[in-house]
Write a structure and sequence with these properties.
Among the domains are: 41 residues, no CATH class; 111 residues, Beta Barrel (Thrombin, subunit H), CATH 2.40.10.10; 255 residues, Trypsin-like serine proteases (Thrombin, subunit H). The N terminus is likely disordered. The protein has eight helices and 32 strands. The protein has an eight-stranded antiparallel β-sheet, with helices on one face. The chain has a six-stranded antiparallel β-barrel with strand order 10-11-12-15-14-13. It has a six-stranded antiparallel β-barrel with strand order 4-5-6-9-8-7. By secondary structure, the chain is α+β, with helices and mostly antiparallel strands.
Length: 681
């Protein structure tokens, strides 16, 4: 005990001394300096009186009161729109990539910067292309700021690069930022969880353009503007007038806030990731928002949209903690981090392969199914060298087809991109289940769900007989009804490889499944699907291993199966039904009834650990030939995720009798491992 105490004291003292040592900083930038405020150029390069610093620099002692978040040297400067006072926004981060300035962020502590995910997600696997500067006032003098490379990055797992929902990321710097020395370097405070700032005037600063239409060069000096935060309904109605029903696709009531609406007072292009700073109820300056998108800039009654940081405080603090854990003593942390690693492994694999979907190469698609070539909102970003794609050119395609360019940015799983989609029970409209595939072997055999351009998830009992002859199975995507296999043409592929779960049991005498447990399989397609080109073709999202869906009112299953047990009408029209996931105890009680399965049948077939049950209402059920169809539920982020796969039931649509599904949350690590193997095999 005594030796442990001594070690702790030595560590604490050495840490404090390391932080408090004097540093050489550019002349005039030290908090104690009288040589100016950094906004003028001293007409002499003077030697440091202490003789310890090179020419043009001075020795600076740390000011302990400036270490705390929210401290700003220029806090009492003007709040007028226009050039910002020097030191008024010391937490502002200046982000660059290989092409130059790319946006802003906000320093939260010595090592971590919060920014908009749309500014950095393209560099998730090329961190060396990103740099962060802290202490920038005039961008023409970046050499006076702290320059840091990125050690690691965590992007919000539900970030959608098309709708810009959940648009935030945390960066960890390779080297720390000294706090308490320079007038223009400090850390910002996070708000308390779910804090409200409606009707407050807050301030946003950045180096972005001044007007969307003019496209003028981003400013050299830091600019600032005050904007009022407005009620969500005010913002919603304004956006509804501009982009109609697609407002629901882009505007997130649970994770965004709106500010501005006054002529000439707004963030603009290149300001993405900049913090919106408000005073909380205690008068402390906190990060209320992050700039993400708008409709043009500075228009009356048109509002800028920001991440509502207060809704993500828990996620941000967890992300910082995970970045710290991975960095510190990795050999000791592997065991502690294993659940976290398993929880995100499937995200990494799926997102990595989804990213490969956007090659930028135009493809020929059926006329009328190409995605619109311009996004409905204006992200606060301009990527040099990436303009709008050219208009469609039908001359390069055969009759009935048009040349289509992919969506700009990664394609988002779990999102439907067709307007006026109904969730009512019955026949569906094209694009309502863009992730669902139609599987054929001489005739329709079942369904599955597209995970990325090449991989389909389905039930093992649908494909196990074709493991050695995968090309026997034809996979169609973009199908609404059976006629849709040819008009307009569905996308067609052959299975090239099939992976069945190792524990899926086959009776050697009958060659039939023993109990339908571990009834899950992956199929590799021989032709990549045109994800991001067609509005009726999309991807399903895998759930988190910790997701639960019991009582979720937004679960839906679709398929081409029979409308009633043994009706013989499967394979024709795509239908859907909304279902409620019930507890396993409720399901088991139903199955135990002698008229359903009884004790022996329930013990044999029902896997209480790795299956889930849904339905139980009269005529509300999946049915014969729906095997492998995904049960899609909306998660907390508003995305459709694959909660289950149809496997078996007792009859179809009987009151109080439930359909049984693979519980996909129990297989995310298996899917991630085998998806990776199939993808690169």
């Amino acid at each position: 005990m005594y030796s442990i105490t001594i070690i702790f004291v030595i560590f604490s003292v050495s840490t404090v001394r390391a932080v408090e040592r004097p540093l050489c900083v550019p002349l005039g930038t030290c908090l104690q300096s009288r040589a100016g405020d950094g906004t003028v150029d001293v007409r002499a390069v003077l030697p440091d009186p202490s003789g310890k610093c090179p020419m043009g620099k001075e020795l600076c002692n740390q000011q302990t009161n400036a270490i705390n978040c929210g401290f700003a040297y220029g806090a009492n400067g003007t709040t007028l729109d226009g050039p910002a006072p020097y030191g008024a926004h010391p937490w502002l981060a200046y982000l660059t990539n290989q092409t130059g300035y790319t946006g802003s962020g906000v320093l939260l502590d010595r090592y971590h910067v919060l920014t908009a995910a749309h500014k950095v997600y393209r560099h998730k696997y090329s961190l060396q292309k990103l740099q962060v500067y802290i202490g920038v006032y005039n961008r023409e003098f970046l050499q006076t700021a702290y320059k840091r490379n990125i050690e690691d990055m965590i992007i919000h797992p539900a970030f959608d690069p098309i709708t810009l929902k959940n648009d935030l990321a945390v960066l960890r710097l390779k080297a720390h930022i000294p706090l308490g020395y320079m007038k223009n370097v400090g850390a910002a405070c996070l708000p308390r969880f779910n804090a409200r700032f409606v009707n407050k005037r807050c301030m946003v600063a950045g180096w972005g353009v001044t007007d969307f239409e003019t496209g003028d060069a981003s400013a050299s000096y830091l600019k600032q503007v005050t904007v009022p935060i407005v009620p969500f309904n005010t913002c919603y109605q304004s956006m509804k007038n501009l982009i109609g029903d697609r407002t629901n696709l882009y505007l997130d009531k649970d994770g965004e806030l709106c500010a501005g609406g006054e002529e000439g007072r707004d963030a603009c292009t290149d300001d993405g990731g900049a913090p919106l700073i408000c005073r909380d109820d205690n008068g402390k300056k906190v990060v209320a928002g992050l700039v993400i998108w708008g409709k043009k800039c500075g228009r009356p009654n048109v509002y800028g949209v920001y991440v509502d940081v207060s809704k993500y405080v828990d996620w941000i603090t967890r992300a910082i903690r995970n970045l710290q854990l991975v960095r510190s003593r990795p050999s000791d942390q592997i065991g502690k981090m294993l659940p976290f690693i398993l929880a995100v492994l499937y995200h990494v694999v799926v997102v990595l392969h989804q990213a490969s979907a956007q090659s930028g190469t135009p493809r020929c698609v059926p006329v009328g199914l190409c995605f619109p070539q311009s996004i409905d909102v204006n992200p606060r970003i301009v990527t040099p060298g990436e303009g709008s794609p050219p208009a469609n050119n039908t001359e390069a395609c055969t009759a009935g087809y048009e040349l289509c360019y992919p969506l700009q940015g990664n394609f988002s799983c779990g999102t439907r991109y067709t307007n006026n989609i109904s969730n009512a029970n019955g026949p569906t409209s094209r694009g309502s289940h863009p992730w669902q595939v139609y599987m054929n072997y001489t005739s329709y055999i079942g369904s599955g769900v597209l995970l990325n351009r090449n991989i389909v998830l389905t039930a093992a009992h649908k494909v196990y007989t074709h493991v050695n002859t995968p090309s026997n199975i034809t996979i169609y995507t973009g199908v609404n009804n059976q006629n849709g296999l040819t008009s307009p043409p569905a996308a067609l592929s052959q299975a090239s490889q099939i992976k069945i779960h190792e524990n899926f049991k086959i009776d050697s005498a009958t060659n039939k499944p023993v109990d339908y447990k571990d009834d899950i399989a992956l199929i590799r397609l021989d032709t990549p699907q045109l994800v991001g080109y067609r509005t009726d073709l999309g991807l399903g999202c895998l759930p988190s291993p910790t997701d639960t869906f019991v009582g979720n009112p937004l679960c839906i299953v679709g398929g081409w199966g029979e409308t009633q047990f043994q009706a013989g009408d499967g394979g024709r029209t795509h239908k859907q039904v909304t279902l409620e996931v019930v507890t396993m105890a409720t399901c088991k009680t139903s199955m135990l009834r002698p008229t359903v399965l009884g004790v022996a049948g329930t013990a044999k077939y029902l896997d209480e650990q790795k299956e889930l049950c849904a339905g139980g209402g009269s005529q509300r059920d999946a049915c014969t030939q729906d095997g492998g169809a995904p049960l899609m539920c909306r998660n907390a982020a508003g995305r459709f995720v694959i909660a289950g796969l149809v496997i078996w039931g007792k009859g179809c649509g009987q009151e109080g009798v439930y359909g049984v599904y693979v519980d996909v949350t129990k297989y995310t690590d298996w899917i991630a491992t085998n998806l990776n193997t199939l993808q690169f095999s």
